[in-house]
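Email to the structure team, subject: 4-hydroxybenzoate transporter model.

Hi all, the expression group asked for a predicted structure before they design truncation constructs. Nothing fancy, just the tokens so they can compare against earlier work. One-line instruction: predict 4-hydroxybenzoate transporter, return tokens.
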Amino acid sequence: MGLLIFYLLTSWLPLLIRETGASMSQASIITALFPLGGGIGVLILGALMDKINPNKVVAVGWLLTGVFVCLVGFSTSSLALMGVMVFIAGSIMNGAQSSMPALAAGFYPTQGRATGVAWMLGIGRFGGILGAFSGAFLMQAQLSFETIFTLLAIPAFLSAIALLIKYRVSQSVPATTDEARSLQKA
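Reply from the structure team: attached below.
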């Protein structure tokens, strides 16, 4: 879901912003704020994952991604405000997306961890492809800027819900034999 958002925005954000009346230069600068924020978001979410339950941190990251992506759509009254919303959305979204392999690694047993993470990353690429194509579809449908960003928030909200469900289910699953043995030794 995250790569759908990422590739749709990095591919189509300049054109979407131009549709609001901004110049190409302004649209390019605002678009550059999305990945720029990502570098900061990755560091913040990584540090939080070391201190707080990682599932909850990333779920909240996706929830906030949805909120700020939606807010980008409602920030057309001011390019400065739009830039701030894009930067924050990029920070949180890139932080949440970059944290997914760490969560996936903890989900799979040691002997299948590399395969599990590789499958997660591979399947995620389809979201990236879908994101690039979705932008073309949304532009062709002539939806408003607000509507496009409201729709784009949905995958982030679905990611948050999925992570919370995964967390709940994993709390009720008994420990594996290897985990039980390591707990007995401790």
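The helical segments are 2-18, 24-51, 54-73, 79-107, 113-140, 145-172, 177-185. Residues 2-185 form a domain with the Growth Hormone; Chain: A; fold (CATH 1.20.1250.20). Ping us if the truncation boundaries need rechecking.
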